[in-house]
Amino acid sequence: MYRVMILFIGLAILPACSLKPRQAPNDDVDKAAILFFQRLESEQYDKIYNDAAESYKKTYAKSDAIEAFKQIAAMGKTTQPNRVEMRLETEDGKRVAFPKFAIQYGQVPGSIIFKFVDEGGEWKLGGFDVRQKGLS
């Protein structure tokens, strides 16, 4: 009798466990940024765009986004990015991360602030802001 009750309780709880959506681990933000830089360096602009968040694709046409990626690449080879800060927020019911990375474009120091959106447990590019020292 107890086995039957435990079985029914287990079966009742099982669907509830799968209702909670999977969240992207915070540590994966760094992995997403590294992947962005690797793809940028190897000129895989289509892959960057195709794997971006839906909100990014709705905001930026593919041709405009690819042109922006090419402009960043034209600044020069970047050094290993070093995350210096990160904010986590919620926008439109989704988790959003804003990591800031210190990098160097050729000989010029700068930074890039990403916006990554948690979509289905994976951090996807939602935007970025590139800055070089001495430029506004």
Features:
alpha+beta; 4-stranded antiparallel sheet; globular
What do you see in this structure?
With 136 residues, the chain is an alpha+beta fold. Helices cover 40% and strands 33% of the residues. The protein has five helices and four strands. The chain has a four-stranded antiparallel β-sheet with strand order 1-2-3-4. The longest helix has 16 residues, at 2-17. The protein is globular, with a radius of gyration of 20 Å.
In a nutshell, what does this entry contain?
The chain is α+β, with helices and mostly antiparallel strands. The chain has 5 helices and 4 strands; from the N terminus they run αααααββββ.
Question: Helices and strands: which structural class?
Answer: alpha+beta
Percentage beta strand: 25-35%
Give the rounded overall mean pLDDT.
86
Major β-sheet strand ordering = 1-2-3-4
Strand elements, count = 4
Question: End-to-end span in angstroms?
Answer: 73 Å
> What gyration radius follows from the Cα positions, in whole Å?
20 Å
Detail the poorly predicted runs. none
- Major sheet size, sense and barrel closure: 4 strands, antiparallel
Helix count from the secondary structure assignment: 5
Shape: globular
Order of helices and strands: HHHHHEEEE
Percentage of helical residues? 40-55%
Topology:
Blueprint: H1 2-17, H2 28-41, H3 45-50, H4 54-59, H5 62-74, E1 82-91, E2 94-105, E3 108-119, E4 122-132
Antiparallel strand pairs: 1-2, 2-3, 3-4
